[in-house]
Design brief:
mainly beta; 4-stranded antiparallel beta sheet; 11 strands
Length: 118
Amino acid sequence: QVQRVEPGGGLVQPGDSLRLSCAASGRTFSSYTMGWFRQAPGKEREILTRITWNDGRTYYVDSVEGRFTISRDNAKTTVYLQMNSLKPEDTAVYYCAAAFRGVKWDYWGQGTQVTVSS
């Protein structure tokens, strides 16, 4: 299972929106819980959200709840992160990850930089 984060990051202004995509290879995508993480300079990587493999339940950390939305398309083996109302504190490298049946994060995307600045 190889994760490839599609170009979608970049420099945006506060209040703007971005959508990140992460395409996975392999035929067992539907068996993976998918997640998005980020790592800001000088900080540890943190999980933002995940969507479960079996029932599509979602989870969000408080800092992005109501602004970010995770979704998945099993037919396209792709997971998305819609980010709205972006803030400067959202500036970070964003990573997608996959956990087989939600056990542990086995595979990681290469990361994409998102910078929110006026």
